[in-house]
Amino acid sequence: MTQQLKLRRGGAEGSFLRRLSADRPARAVYVALALLIVLGWLLFALDGGRFLSQENIVGIQQRSAALGIVAVGQTLVILAGSLDLSVAYLISLTSLVAAEIMAGADGGVPAAVAAVLAVSATVGLVNGLIVTRLRVHAFIATLGVALIIRGALDERYDGPAGSVPESFQHLGYDRIGPIPVSALLWAAVAASAWLLLSRTRLGYRIYAVGGDAEVARLSGVRTERVVIAAHVLCSVCAGIAGLLLASRLGAGAPTVGTDGGYDLESIAAVVLGGTALAGGRGGVAGTVGGVLLLAVLDSIFNQLEVNSFAKDVVRGVVLVAALAIYARRRRTT
Amino acid sequence: MRRALPIFVVLAGLLVAIAIANPYFLEPPAFLAFVKRAAPLVILAAGQYFVIVSGEFDLSVGSLITAEVVIAARLIDGSAAATWPVLALLIVLGLLTGLVNGTVTTLLRVPSFITTLGMLLILSGAIFLWTGGAPRGALSPQFRELGRGSLGPVPWSVLILAAVAAAAICAMRAGFGHTLIAAGDNDRAAALSGVRVARVRTVAFMISGLSAAVAAILLGGFAGVSAQVGQGLEFQAITAVVLGGVALGGGRGSVVAAMAGAFTLEALFTLLNLYGISGAVEPAVQGVIIIAAVALGAVSLPRRRAAAAS
């Protein structure tokens, strides 16, 4: 609740920067990100590469866009005190829906985008209803929905299907100056989520419900609607990521979501950004920092040609270490 | 016990349904084969129960199983002499993993979801870094005997399962079990009344690691060496425990019901196979049934408030 009050006060008088710095854990992740960038720059220099080359910066943006979009959605559900493990399979599903409806024709794009948004919103609605109305723990509810989507995928597809027209592939590969279109899309999604959380009633309610659902209910918030809305928004974000991946691949693929590990990885990015897993504390700014941190780490590994398995080890250590540091800070303040 | 009752009814119903489709199922050899197949998951669920009832999660058991099987194959490499030392090593490794999970969760106050997720990444990365991407070596026949062989008509894995079940029930009846449930129900109250919450939870993680080691030994013998042997088992184990009516968030549920949940999951897979439901639809049916079972459990029985508060 203190978070909420702080945000309210910020809304009345605060500048953009003051508001960002009110989100203390987010500051920690940006400090870490800055240190990592310096470290990366040094390592690249020793290795004979240029960290701040356009190629590398574009690479970092490209790699982080899809995960970033999913993680923004995941932030919303986690803030509301829930969790979504179904995003990975939903990404695969929406990539296939998009590619099959487009079927290589330019005319199919609007219908495909509409269908993807409809499918993902429906999945989010189902998730939200199971969590709130049937009172199933979000972990089990979204795991069950993930299994259901997986069954549908296994039943219908053996490999890549559908095809994406050339015009839609611009989304995945084009860039305006040094900034890829996909990164702009991610920025737009993050900015709207940030506005939602800091400027709208629904945003305040998400913090309130995640902070203490019972208190929120007693103060007149319809907690169920808030949780459902958060789930729908999270699934729509996964759907957008599915569209982006379909445009990159030129087709839909039944394994694109799970291969990327978007379910657990997006949760990891959110908590790296300082959002509490129990809900109610944190924000989108931290999540963006968390995703960038993972992406910069990746680009350093690539430059040093570290084995991909070693990346997992380092990621695991970074994740646990970061959370241990957050826990320490929270206790001392 | 009242909370545990539904799962036994469901399990009995499923067993009857299997018996109707396949009359030989209830004869000893077929039934023992079923129990043998279910043993690793049941043992894993028993271990996961201790962690969940204390209010935490253990997501690392799946990759721990893969790691243990791959390590065993590499170290044994077909030699009979290496079997017993390696078995001991696997047990120690399981306990050690649990100790690290527990210490990081309790002393460093990292949410267990993240601790064990990090452990999952570390274990799976490290093991494939060590083997270079594909598991090498082979298990010795002596090692595989535990998962495949039998003592007279009774498979070894069934005997091991019985021993694990007895030990788990004893542990939950002893003082340890009571303090564990108290810690899971309300850790602050438990701490104020003298429970060493950090220590009890760490022991729970060690039990989970130990159960993963035992499950890995059985699965390695039963299914052989592969890089996918433990994949998804952490979610299956958690599902089984929740099916048994154990509350995520801690403090509620019995270990017998958790094990019954694992048997139910295995019976469900068997039934789906019997009715020729193809491999593809299986996960979907599983998903529906899990949600339905947990939803029914939540609606008909008093719900624990603010379970996610910690």
From TrEMBL, chain A:
InterPro entries recorded: ABC_transp_permease (IPR001851)
Localisation per UniProt entry: Cell membrane
Keywords, alphabetical: Cell inner membrane, Cell membrane, Membrane, Transmembrane, Transmembrane helix, Transport
Main localization (coarse): membrane
Lineage: superkingdom: Bacteria
Transmembrane segments: 28-46, 67-91, 111-129, 136-153, 176-197, 226-247, 267-297
Topology in the lipid bilayer: Multi-pass membrane protein
Pfam families in alphabetical order: BPD_transp_2
Keyword Kinase: no
Alphabetical list of PANTHER family matching this protein: ABC TRANSPORTER PERMEASE PROTEIN YPHD-RELATED-RELATED, AUTOINDUCER 2 IMPORT SYSTEM PERMEASE PROTEIN LSRD
Record protein name field: Autoinducer 2 import system permease protein LsrD
Taxonomic lineage from the root: Bacteria, Bacillati, Actinomycetota, Actinomycetes, Streptosporangiales
Gene name linked to the record: rbsC_4
TrEMBL record, chain B:
Protein name in UniProt: Autoinducer 2 import system permease protein LsrD
Listed transmembrane segments: 82-101, 113-133, 153-172, 203-223, 229-248, 255-277, 283-301
Localization, UniProt: Cell membrane
Keywords recorded for this protein, A-Z: Cell inner membrane, Cell membrane, Membrane, Transmembrane, Transmembrane helix, Transport
Membrane topology value: Multi-pass membrane protein
Entry-linked InterPro entries: ABC_transp_permease (IPR001851)
